[in-house]
Amino acid sequence: MSVASNDPGAAPAAPAPSDFIRDIVARDVAEQRYPTIVTRFPPEPNGYLHIGHAKSICLNFGIARENQGRCNLRFDDTNPVKEDVEYVESITADVRWLVAGWADHCLGLKPRGATPAKVTLDGREDHYLAPAAAGAAAEAFFASDYFEQIYGYAVELIRRGKAYVCDLSAEETDAYRGSPDQPGRDSPYRHRSVAENLDLFTRMRAGEFPNGARSLRAKIDMASPNIWLRDPLLYRIRHVAHHHAGDKWCIYPLYDFAHCLSDYLEGITHSVCTLEFEVHRPLYDWILQSLDLPRALPHQYEFAKLNISYTLFSKRRLLQLVTESHVSGWDDPRLPTLSGARRRGIPASAIRKLATLVGVTKFESVTDVALFEHAIRDELNRAAARRLAVLRPLKLVLTNLPAGETILIDATNNPQDEQPTTRPVALTREVYIEAEDFAEVPPPKYFRLKPGGEVRLKYACIIKCDEVVKDAAGAVVELRCTADLTTRAGGPNADRKVKGTIHWVSATTSFGAEVRLYDRLFTVAEPGATDDFTRHLNPASLQVVTARLEASLADARVEDRFQFERLGYFALDPKDSAPGRPVFNRTITLKDTWAKA
RNA sequence: UGCCCGAUGGUGUAAUGGUAGCACAAACGAUUCUGACUCGUUUUGUCUAGGUUCGAGUCCUAGUCGGGCAGCCA
Question: Which residues numbered 499-518 in chain A sit less than 7 A from strand B, measured from CB?
């Protein structure tokens, strides 16, 4: 099956990606194990999303999309001390941005304020939270909206003799757990009666005990070779308010207990997570199976998270970069955060393309950042309007053009379009060219401008360098050239060839603007390999220049993508641009095979 | 010295017992009013040792190397 993309300027329909998880889903679809395929993206709202999360989002939404299913956005907010609504909002915005124009229709949200409904299925009680209908007031799912149901499931586990209230302290629990190669010992509280457990758990909820005084534990096997099966904690006491649930609770479920049940309550079919949860899967299954639930159970599958060379993904280290002001904030364009990428001008479609290029496996690989750069250039090459801009201006006088004269020429907006359009740009007596496009003593194979040499001004005409003007210090400050107007498009010598074509702007109609040139943040391929990773920060990761931009760029909008010809891809900085004072960010350079030589 | 998982060119992946393919990167060439794009060519690979089989990257056994697991974090 092939899937069309709604992205403007996106590549033609490509075959749907295939990987071991999609194979499993396809098998389940073929066997009609579930009425619809439902996945979920379940971040904890305790930080910003980055490209690594994007891989998971693309996988989960991709599966939903390819199977006419749904992917719920759910906040895994079971630890109130780490979480905040600030993150809920940024994560929601980032997810929406990433799937916009691609899988918006698969984004599973719930009716605003809704909690799971009690239903009766085959005479058995069940709970289910249906997604919001299209157009209804909706919000993301929250695990904290299920605290009542999850509490009920805990009570049920106690009734079945599969959970108990334990009075061991955190340290004692640790000691009783044993070690990977040493079995644990049973808690002295393991054999409390169901009635006592019920009473104690009720009082835990009622707030009778201080933090850490007691916990609820699953009764599994303290000698299990899998540590996660050694009577794992299900609930802890925390007398703190919750950013979403308010101050209703003083006991909070742990990840392992809340996650599988949240999946169940939402009707998730395929619960996809990263490899470190592999050893938790038996617990995921144990909890669901112990409850004897009426509906089909979700299943967990694990894949390797994304690593990219020269890129840091660790939340802790990203935080350090922000707090130590190595970058300007979580949305610094040099960061791999989704907000940073967006601000830098990276299209969501490029991130999605990267996700399909890297595939999904259980091998913890390091993807070459060049693959990401390729994805970005590929998307932008298709979509970006070409413009003329000079980053480091050098004045050039066309001595045979009168001072007041303006010649309007047609410049192609995007040669990649099937029917390219043009815009007028002004050629005047004084123009700016890129300083590095002139060399007084040219290196070998240099085919830009040199004394006595010829070059074409893109879209305009061939010029010849007659004179080099220098200041007292000997620096080149101006070039005096003659323009061969017969080489203009449509002119008699339009087809005359010169080796070099360079970009330029009119000195009189262009305007100056701040342009931020970004480069990779780190100088080493694996910046996370050492603790003193800030040592490997690239001192030139940001350079700010005052560039000269062609007049039409004054009307640039935040959503526009540009290729400054021969330089790279640029977009307006959405934060620091002001009307009449645009600031451009360089998303990425053009591939430059000359610079490498 | 417990349990779980993994290993295919430089990188990321495909091949579901039957011709080791694709993409990125690199190199060279063509084309070019972007040293871009596009197009063409080339280099480089199944962790090791056994076994099963007519046939093994794939299945089995052992090993090597790498990763994960001992939060009242997720």
Answer: 500-503
